[in-house]
Structure formats: C-alpha cells, structure tokens
Amino acid sequence: MSETLLEIRGLTVEFDVPAGRLPAVAGVDLSLRRGEILALVGESGSGKSALSMSLVGLNRGPRAHIGGEVLFGGRDLVAADEKELRGVRGRDIAVVFQDALAALNPTQRVGDQVAEMIRTHRKVPKRQARERAVELLGEVGIGNPAQAARAYPHQLSGGMRQRVMIAIGLANDPAVLIADEPTTALDVTIQSQVLRLLKRLQADHGTAIVLITHDLGVVAEVADRVAVMYAGRIIESGTRDEVLFHPQHPYTMGLLSSVPRVDGPAVARLPAIAGSPLTGVARPKGCAFAPRCAFAHAACGDAIPQLQQRYGGQAHLDRCVLERSRETLAVTP
Amino acid sequence: MRLVLKRLAAVPVVLLVLSTMVFAAIRLLPGSPATGLAAGGASGTATAADITANTEKINAALGLDKPLLSQYWSFLSDIVHLDLGSSFYGGNDITGLLGDTLPATIELTVAAMLIAVLIGMLTGILAALRRGTWIDTATRTIGTVSFSLPWFALGVLSIVVFGVWLRWLPVIGRLPNALDYHPLTNFVLLDAILQDRPELIWPWLEHLILPATTLALSMAGFITRIVRASVLEVLGDDFVRTARMKGLSPAAILRRHVLRNSSLPIVTVLGLQFGSLLGGSVITETVFSYPGVGNLLVNGILQRDYPIVQGAALAIALLFTLVNVFVDLLYLALDPRLRKA
Ligand SMILES: Nc1ncnc2c1ncn2[C@@H]1O[C@H](COP(=O)(O)OP(=O)(O)O)[C@@H](O)[C@H]1O
Ligand SMILES: [Mg+2]
C-alpha cells in the first residue's frame, strides 16, 4: 500500500494572462501511493485542476509554463515530450472530467468513444474493442450496456454520462485515475452512487485515484488521504482522519466548518471563511491565507510558511506558523 | 426529419412568391419585347409607322395586350401545368432550354463549390492550427482579399492570363464546337459514363476549370474564415481535451473529433453561400460565354424575353432551395443531436 506510484516535486504551473503571470500552482510536493484514493480539496480557483492536468501535460500550451518534476515509472512527465506523454495518457494515467456532457464527443456513439480509448493503446480489432466497451459499460453499472453503447451522449442521463466517462478512464486499466470533480454536476443520490462506484473500482483494480473535490462530505466517504490546496499550494495533508478530525491549518478548519452536518449533535463552529480566495497575479510575501485568517498576526506576513509536520501524526503536515493548541482556536466565537 | 419536411413544404410558397416578383420586376423594366422585335423584324428598314403597327400586332400575338392580372393568371396556371411557355424570339420551348442550360449551371456551381470547399477547408484548418503565426496572418489576408474580389474582374483577369497570355486553357463555352457530343442527360460527366466516352471528360474539365475557379475563389475566402473560426472553437471544446487525454495524436484528434464537429457551422454557411454562388454564376457564365441558366437569364433580360427570364429565375430558385434541403439532410447526418423522432 505504501509504495509510491507518482511523485510530484516542486510543481509549478503558471499561465500568461493579461495582467501578467498567474501562479495557478506555486510549488507542490505530493506523492500518490499505489491503489490509494487521494483527495485533493480546496475552494474553486485554488489550482486543483491546474495541478492535476499538468500531471499528464493536458494544460500544456503557448500560454502555460509548467515547472518542477512529476516522477512516474522512472521518468519525469514534466520533461517528457508530447510523443512520450501520449503513451502515458489514457494508458497509465487517465482522467475523468467534471462535465461529462461537454467532455464526450457529441457526434460519436458512446461505445465508440470507449473503444477508441482501447484502440489508441492496443492493437485490437474494432469489433473486439467494441465488445470490450460494452463490457466496461456494464462494469460501471450501466443497465443495458449494449444499447447504451449505441447511444449518443445527449441521449443519456447525467449519471450515465459520468459512468461512461469512468468507463473510458478505466478502459486500459490505468495505474492512476484522476477524477476532477466527477460528481459536481450530478444530483445528490447519483453523486453517492458514482462515488461508491469509484471506491469499488479502486478496490477491484487497485487503481490509485486522485479525487478532486471541494466537497468534504465526498472526502469523508471515500478518501484514504487528503491534501488541502489554497492559492496554488498544499496547506495541509495527511490521512483522512487526521485532516478531517484533527485539522491543523485554520483554512482547513474553515472548510470543515462550512460543511453542513446532518449527522450527530450540532458542534461549536468556527466562523465560515470570510473573504474570497486569492486568484490574481499578485501574491503576498507571507502566508496567502493570512488576509482571510481569523488568527493571523504580524509574523504571518513575513514569509511563506513551510509545509511541515507540527502537532499531528508523522505524515500530517501543514503550512502555518501559529504556535497554538487546538483549544485556543476552538473558543473563537 | 421534420425540419426537412417543413423546408420541402415551403418550396412551392417560395417559388410562388419568387415567380410573382420576377413577373412584376421584368415588366417594370423600361422597354418591352415588342419594341425590339418590331424594329428587328424589318431588319432595320422599318419606318416609325411600321414599328407602331408591328408593335401592336406583336403585343397581340404574345398576349401582352391583355390586362396584367390576366397575364399573371395565365402565367401561374401555366406553371402549375409545368408549362413554362416559349421564347418570344424563335419560339423555343423554355423547358427544353432549361434542360440544356440547367445541367451546365449545376456542373459549374457544384464544381465551384467543391473547389471552394477544398481550398477553404485546407486553408482554414491550416490557419486555425497555426493560429497567431505568419501562416495564419497570410492565409487570412489572402482569404479576405479573395472574398472581396468581384467575379467580373476575376473572370476577365483569368481569361487574360490563362487564356490569352499563357494559352493554357480555353476560355469560351462548355465544350469545343467540333466535339461530337450527343447529350443524353446533358451532364457531361454522366453522359461520358453512360455512353462510355471517356474522351469527353478532359475537354469538359478544361472548359470548366477557369469559370469554376473564378466562381470558387471568393467563396473559398469566405469558407477559410468560417472554417478557421469553427475549428478554433471546437479545439477549445472539452471533448478535444478528452481526446488528448486518451493519448490520441494531433492528426487523429483533428480527423476524428475536430473536423466533424466543426463542419456543422460550415455546412450551414455553404447552403446560404450557394445563393451568392448562383448570383456569381450569372456573371461568370456571361464572362466566359458559358451556356448555362445565368447566361440564358442575362440574354432574356436584355431582350425583354419575359418567359425566359421567368423560367430561368424559377430554375435558379429551385436549385437554391434543393441545395438547402440537401444541406439540411447533411446537417442531420452530421449532428445526431438534431435527429429527433
Ligand atoms: N488555461 C488557463 N489560463 C489562464 N488561467 C488559468 C487557466 N487554467 C486555470 N487558470 C487559473 O488558475 C487558477 C486555478 O484554476 P483551477 O486549477 O481551475 O482551480 P480549481 O480547479 O481548484 O478550481 C484560477 O485562478 C484560474 O483562473
Ligand atoms: Mg477545477
């Protein structure tokens, strides 16, 4: 379980925008272990998609600058050329996108879109790829897979389309599946079905999943480990229980307090995070969260805090300088 | 499907409105068929009195002395009976004339369309893929210039350059006069196959190239712009990112995902542009003395030969409508989202 599959070191993703260079990912170190579900959480605009797309170079382009290292299978995917990356994309690392309706080709039959994924990496006859596509559609819980395979995306429901997306992702049994907010566009009951599907596939196939979400309920349901992102950096990471039940960083606490709890007694809440996330070109010298932090003091503006082990367990890291116990934080009205 | 049926149902209405407009417009032009005929009939030696007398006789013979409304009525009832009348000059049957000229115009416009689509697609895709480079700028500039070139000027220029200076290609007519050709369908390519006469094809193509290219160039410039915009838009779509995620090569992405999806707006534009192409064919046919409906129409107008003008305009309108029905069908074939019940 603890074997490292993918190692991200000092990853930066910057985009040329009219105002200058936007640091969407500002130096991320993170590792993904074989077969785990790693949740990447954070508010919209914190750089989750930019981070995950850059793993396989999907956001490469004239306006994008990607730096650092992504070590996978003995090579650096950031340095790899497009040709080399094409061999990795879809075969070793696949992505399930958020908006399945937009992510599927509107003029191609769903079964053909799954079969295309297979035939891109394996020399199998069309017929055989089609049959395998139908099997895969069945495997992701589509009722009448043969019929669904002949349908066009617009003829399927939102939940079905997301299952199709997952079937495409799994078609070549990749080592890593990146699921970028796979349930955001779906209604609640369908959401949990899709999550359980991901969980089951992870168990059956041993696929490592990077699950991107801003929904901590989702995290609680399926994640093994959690990394919290803010303004392009990881500000806290650890096991699910560490991060959800013993959050160290004020931002994580704020996120947790804004999760509506339907179970258990009403707990004393921290104030929901005021203000809006940092998305502009200019970044402060110190902690990016300080302007919104209820506990910020002068030292927070001096330098960007290191991501380090502080109060929690061995692998529970956070990026904060406040000397404190959790009790002092919890009393804030 | 319903869309197409609707279009088809509208065809008679369109044709009725159009023929009414043509009927009125041609009669609003100064001069009348009788004046020309009356003077010409006496080979220029007629006196003023003769001309007046002749004019009355001719008007009576052609039915032009009747009130407009009754002329209009008999014109309509003739059309309904598929009788387009006959020419004031020489009495040729209009249906027969159209049977000769319409295939020629269809050949010309379809060839022009194919050339325009070929050039427009290639340059449009190239410009989109090389967006922001000098290739993009050059392609777009040439496209804009060719789009704004008048057909007449382009036709004359190509005649001078390729026909007169370089002497590469014939510049007049549709086939050499000396050629032994017995039309069956009047579509040369089709006849060449049906009559097993492959030697017809080259002389035919040779005559077609210049007028068709002349006609195609301005449309190609327009298609370039549409294709570029459309391809750029589709390239930004999420499913293209999915295709990249699958590990497909840029060529495969273009072929399997981008082209089909970006062809939708292009096809719509083609249908509409076919109208202006037909307009251009009238001028081009005249410049190249190409025996098509456009040529027929221009001569009809010059001679105030009402039945010919009416028949030719109807034929052109019918062609336009049919092409657009075809475009609708193509649209349905390309985009499954439009196929409902
Ligand atoms: N292609 C791009 N060009 C310019 N800016 C981008 C691009 N992609 C993302 N960004 C910017 O980078 C930041 C992070 O975006 P993103 O990774 O999509 O956030 P998240 O997925 O966490 O919501 C945002 O400010 C966003 O506007
Ligand atoms: Mg995102």
UniProtKB/TrEMBL annotation, chain A:
Its main location: membrane. InterPro entries: AAA+_ATPase, ABC_Ni/Peptide_Import, ABC_transporter-like_ATP-bd, ABC_transporter-like_CS, Oligopep_ABC_C, P-loop_NTPase. GO terms for molecular function: ATP binding; ATP hydrolysis activity. Residues 8-256 form the ABC transporter domain. One of its GO terms (biological process) is peptide transport. It holds the Pfam family oligo_HPY. It is a peripheral membrane protein. One of its GO terms (cellular component) is plasma membrane. Keywords: ATP-binding, Cell membrane, Membrane, Nucleotide-binding, Transport. It is found in: Cell membrane. The keyword Transport applies. It comes from the Bacteria. The keyword Repressor does not apply. Belongs to the ABC transporter superfamily. This is ABC transporter ATP-binding protein. It comes from Paractinoplanes tereljensis.
UniProtKB/TrEMBL annotation, chain B:
Residues 102-331 form the ABC transmembrane type-1 domain. InterPro entries: BPD_transp_1_N, MetI-like, MetI-like_sf. It is found in: Cell membrane. One of its GO terms (biological process) is transmembrane transport. Pfam families: BPD_transp_1 (PF00528), BPD_transp_1_N (PF19300). The chain crosses the membrane at residues 108-129, 141-166, 208-227, 264-288, 308-334. Keywords: Cell membrane, Membrane, Transmembrane, Transmembrane helix, Transport. One of its GO terms (cellular component) is plasma membrane. It is a multi-pass membrane protein. PANTHER family: DIPEPTIDE TRANSPORT SYSTEM PERMEASE PROTEIN DPPB-RELATED (PTHR43163). Belongs to the binding-protein-dependent transport system permease family. This is Peptide ABC transporter.
